[in-house]
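re: that complex we talked abt at group meeting.

here r the seqs, copy pasted straight from the sheet so there may be weird spacing, ignore it
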Amino acid sequence: MNETRESRKKLFLHLYQEVFPQLAAYISKRGGSLEDAKDLFQDALIIHYEQTRSEQRQESNAAYLFGISRHLWYKRYKENKASPMALENLPETAELQEPSHPSKEILLTFLEKVSQKCMELLEAVYYDKISMSQVAKKFGFMGERSATVQKYKCMEKVRELIKEKKMAYEDFVE
Amino acid sequence: MRTSLNEIERIENYLLQKNDPSQHLRFEVSLMCSGELREKVSQQRELYEHIRCYGRKKLIEEIEEVHQRLFKEPEYIRFKNKILNIFNARK
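got the structure back, here u go
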């Protein structure tokens, strides 16, 4: 699993160095701040990752990434101009700023603490969309079949953990 | 595989649309007949949502780590100065 994280960080480091200066100049020229450029670029990196993750082609695509960033800037700028308060509720980017719900954050931290191995396995399958044979290799299973069985076991476990946590929370609220 | 795991697989096939039309229809019939199954489907849908949030949270952490490295480590001082100059030049 760490291998995925490390190679991903390497890719981000490369993309940052290749694209960010150009984007910073673009944003600066249009009156934006370093903070604006950072936010835009990080959102663009997430979109870029989510769009390319299943294609197994995690090569640097600088022009494409710059295009996404520019598009996000244009959207924010336009909507911001129309209504000065709109910066906070942009459809495309608002979705990216979701970890603001405190109970959701608490739940995710809890799940990671009590079941880190399962969360990493499920993340690899459903978020990173890695093939089951790669998952088997990464997590040390005999083959696809046993990785799949483990995946379902993890789902059952995490589902029960969420249920318990929710019930405990409801008892507390009542 | 245990019965409960088979059920999770069946729900996954339904939710992630891996079924052919006749399997899909059969599953919908089972759903109509069982409140317990409906409950499990909604729990599993919620589970996928949590996994997505978890994955994104990890990704954001990694990106932030890369950002901090570039702006704090001496190795990348030239990069940092280049960026700061872009914004300072405007003032």
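couple things i noticed - The longest helix of chain B spans residues 35-72. Chain B touches chain A at residues 1, 4-5, 8-9, 12, 43-44, 46-48, 50-60, 62-67, 69-70, 79, 82-84, 86-87, 89-90 (CB under 8 Å).
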